[in-house]
Design goal:
alpha+beta, 60s Ribosomal Protein L30, Chain: A, 2 domains, binds cobalt (II) ion
């Protein structure tokens, strides 16, 4: 692979965005994400996908600058109105983030796909990575877990509209506020919770930081309906794979049921920020952000495991 002295993080670290230093000392961040529809409503899908794409910039402590659309769409099979609605959802979410969508690329494809390439900027000293977590740090999560389970239930039409709505609201919420408030304090490690699930992303932080994490399962907040849906057998393939992977690095105390393990490993779409702060900063962040953020555990010195979850 070709390397370049200006590249600060790339895909070899498990960070959320590429970080490149420009000659004038400024730092640019860049990230790309796109996926197939997870809800029926095209406008909402556009909003969720854009919020998810923007999240990696927020998870690095950066500010987004502009974005490009990535679109795949079955031009012959589906109405152009649907495509317009998807892109309007994306544009409105980008506007909420304070940035324009300045271009993009689309292809004809059997299954619709949508997402953004997002470019952002940051101050080098303030960039958050996965590798800075320290023993004693408090672990905070800013959105409830369960979007993977509920998205699967939506596809199977096995979910009430109120449960679907709560999950949709959570997925389309930008991590902008969480990021901006966290920038006033000093998080030691930050990532956003997406496909690898809560435990998977926490394992990344622990392994990159050479520490371990103790999680209190009771402190993890789940979206309404998620716990019931798992007990009804709604288990996304990605979440099952996450659990298989997590078990190599995680001690699940015997009081945890297999459904509880799956819930903790549920693959998220547009999940919240997962932050580790020194105790005083954690307190201040929780006060400033409000009740939706939860303290779920603590970073400890490196153990034989990466993550332990107690009930
Ligand atoms: Co990420
Ligand atoms: Co990403």
């Amino acid at each position: 692979m070709t390397t370049n002295d200006s590249v600060i993080t790339d895909y070899t670290s498990t960070d959320d965005a590429a970080v490149v230093r420009l000659d004038n000392g400024k730092i640019i961040l860049q990230t790309v994400d796109f996926f197939t529809p997870i809800v029926d409503d095209p406008y909402t899908f556009g909003q969720i996908s854009a919020a998810n794409s923007l999240s990696d910039i927020y998870a690095m402590g950066g500010h987004p600058l502009f974005a490009l659309n990535i679109v795949a769409f079955p031009i012959q099979k589906l109405s152009h109105t649907i495509l317009s609605e998807i892109m309007q959802g994306g544009a409105d979410k980008a506007a909420e983030a304070g940035i324009p969508i300045v271009g993009g690329h689309s292809i004809d494809d059997n299954e619709p796909k949508y997402g953004l390439v997002v470019t952002g900027e940051a101050i080098e000293e303030n960039i958050w990575t996965n590798s800075g977590a320290k023993p004693g740090d408090q672990i905070i999560l800013t959105k409830p877990i369960g979007t993977g389970i509920i998205s699967t239930a939506i596809k199977k039409e096995k979910v009430s509209s109120s449960i679907a709505l709560a999950a949709t609201e959570s997925m389309k919420t930008l991590n902008k506020k969480a990021s901006e408030i966290a920038q006033k304090f000093s998080p030691n490690a930050v990532t956003d919770v997406t496909g690898f699930g809560l435990v998977g992303h926490l394992i990344e932080i622990c392994n990159a930081s050479d520490v371990s994490a103790n999680i209190n399962y009771k402190q993890i907040e789940f979206l309404p309906g998620a716990i019931d849906l798992v007990s009804e057998g709604i288990i996304p393939g990605g979440s099952k794979r996450n659990l298989d992977h997590a078990e190599k690095f995680t001690v699940f105390r015997s009081s945890l049921s297999s459904n509880q393990k799956l819930l903790a490993c549920d693959a998220q779409t547009s999940g919240g920020l997962l932050l580790t702060f020194p105790p005083d900063d954690a307190e201040e962040f929780l006060k400033a952000f409000g009740a939706k953020a939860k303290r779920i555990g603590e970073i400890v010195y490196k153990k034989t495991y990466s993550v332990a979850i107690d009930n």
